[in-house]
Amino acid sequence: MATSMADLVNSLSIPAITSISLLLLLLFYIYSQQQQAKNVKKHHPIAGTMLNQLINFNRLHDYMTDLARKHKTYRLIAPFRNEVYTSDPANVEYILKTNFENYVKGMYQHNILKDLLGEGIFTVDGDKWREQRKTSSYEFSTKVLRDFSSVIFRRNGVKLAHILSEAAKNDQILDINDLFMKATLDSIFKVAFGIDLDSMCGSNEEGVRFSKAFDDASAMTLKRYVDITWKIKKFLNIGSEAKLKESVKVIDEFVYKLIRTKTEHMHKTPDDLVLKKDDILSRFLQINDTDPKYLRDIILNFIIAGKDTTSTTMTWFIYLLCKHPQVQQKVAKEIKEATNNKGDVTNIEEFTSSVTEEALEKMHYLHAALTETLRLFPAVPVDAKICCADDVLPDGYDVKKGDMVSYQPYAMGRMKFIWGDDAEDFKPERWIDENGCFQPQSSFKFTAFQAGQRICLGREFAYRQMKIFASILLGCFVFKLSNEDKTANYKTMLNLHIDGGLPIRVFNRHG
C-alpha cells in the first residue's frame, strides 16, 4: 500500500524537517532574487552630465566622440530626464526602423521650431508627417523635378564658376563657404518657388531681404536650444525673440505674396503646362487649392533642408581636397575623362554642357569623395528623438518614457569598430569596390541621411547638386587654402558649419 504524505512527514525526524525547510526557503530565496533581477531596470553607463556638455560646448561633437569610444551607448544626466547617445548601428536601426513609432520628434522640438517652420515635415510626427512624406516623396521621384533641378544646378554652377574665374585672374582670396551658401540658396529657391533669388549677385533686393531674414531666423531658432529663457523673451518680445519675430514677419510677407501671385497666375493661364509643372510650389498648387499656411510651411522646410546641408558639405569637401591634393587631382582627372575634356577649359558654359547625366553616372570616385566627406563631417552631427514608452534597446539596456535618445553621425564616422583602424582618415577608396564602382554601405552605419522611414527624401537631389557643382568647379579650377597650415574647426550648431568660413585661392586648371 502506498505511503501517504502524512505518514512520510510523521516518519521524519525534527532535524530532517528543519533541513528540508531551510532548503525550501533557500530555493524560494534564489527564485525570488531571479524574478527580482528580471524586473530591475538596466540602464546605460553614465558618462557625464549636461554641465560637461556646456564645459565642452566649443568641441561638443569631439567630446561626445571621446565618450562614444568608451561606450557605444551612454547616458548624460539632465535635470528632468536622461539623455541617451548611441553610436551602435544595431540601436540606430531599432530606433529609426524596427520600433520607429516609439521614437518621435516630440513637442519639445516642435515648440522650438514651429515659429519658423510651422507644421512642416521636420517638426511634426504621426499623420501630419505621413501625409507630407507621401506627397513630397512623389514630387522628389518625378522626372520633371529631376530635370528642372539639374538645369538650375548647372546654371548656378556656371555663375559660381565665373566668380571664381575672376578671383583666379586677380589672385583674390575668397570665402568659398559664403559662396556655397548663396549658390545653394539660389538653387533651392528656384526649385521650390520658381523665381530667381540671385543672392550670389544681389540683383533681387526683395530676395536679398528675404535671404537675410531667413538666415537671421534660422540662427535665432537654433539659439532656443541653448537659451532656457527664450519663452520668457518671446512673451516679453525682447532680445533674440523680438529679432526672430521680425525676421519671420519678413519671411511670411515674402512667401505669402509669392503664393498669391503664383496662384493667380496659374488660374489665369491654366493651359501653361510648363508653369504648372516645374517648381515644387506650382506642383503643390496643381494638386488642389491648398491652404497657404500649409504651403508656406512645406516650402520653408524644403529650403532649410536644401540650403545649409548641401553648402556645409561642399565647404568641407573643398577643405578636405585642399588637405589631400592627390585626391583633388584624382577627382579632377575622373571629371575630365567622364566629360571627354582633355585640355584646358576655355569656355565655362561649353564645359558645363558636357556635364551630362550620363557623365555624372560615371563619376564613381567623385561620389565616393563626397560620401567620405559626409562620413567625417555629416551636415547634421547628432539627431535626437524622444522615447514615447519604456523600451529595451537591442544592446539589452532600458530607456524610459520621456528620455531623449540620440544617434550620432559625427561620432559614428570616427568609430573604429564600424570603419576599421583608419576610421579617422579621409579615404574615398573605402567606398570603391574591386571594379572601380561606388559601393554603398548600410544606412544604419552611414547615418548622414538618416535611415529607415525618415531617410532623407532629398538624398539623390543633394548628391546631384553637389556632383554638378563639383564637376564644374574642379573641372575648371585648382583649389588651395589661403593658409595651408590652418586646421578648420566646426561651429557648434544644429548643422556642422565650418567656423569662420573657408578662405581659399583658386587657379585655372591646366590639362
Summarize the topology.
Elements: H1 5-11, H2 14-39, E1 46-49, H3 50-55, H4 60-70, E2 73-77, E3 82-86, H5 89-98, E4 103-104, H6 106-117, H7 126-141, H8 143-169, E5 174-175, H9 176-193, H10 205-223, H11 230-236, H12 239-268, H13 273-277, H14 280-287, H15 292-306, H16 308-323, H17 325-338, H18 348-353, H19 357-361, H20 364-376, E6 383-387, E7 391-392, E8 398-399, E9 404-407, H21 409-412, H22 416-419, H23 459-476, E10 477-481, E11 490-491, E12 497-498, E13 503-508
Could you report the average pLDDT, rounded to the nearest whole number? 86
For the largest beta-sheet, the strand count, sense and barrel status come to: 6 strands, mixed
Q: List low-confidence stretches.
A: 1-10, 272-276
Number of strands: 13
> For this entry, what is the oligomeric state of its chains?
single chain
Spatial ordering of strands, largest sheet: 1-2-3-9-6-4
Helical residue percent?
Answer: 55-70%
Radius of gyration: 28 Å
Alpha-carbon distance between the termini?
108 Å
The chain-level structural class is alpha+beta
Which geometry do the CA atoms define? globular
**Separate helix tally:** 23
Beta-strand percent range: 5-15%
Protein name: Cytochrome P450
Transmembrane segments: 12-32
Organism: Centaurea solstitialis
GO molecular function, one term: oxidoreductase activity, acting on paired donors, with incorporation or reduction of molecular oxygen
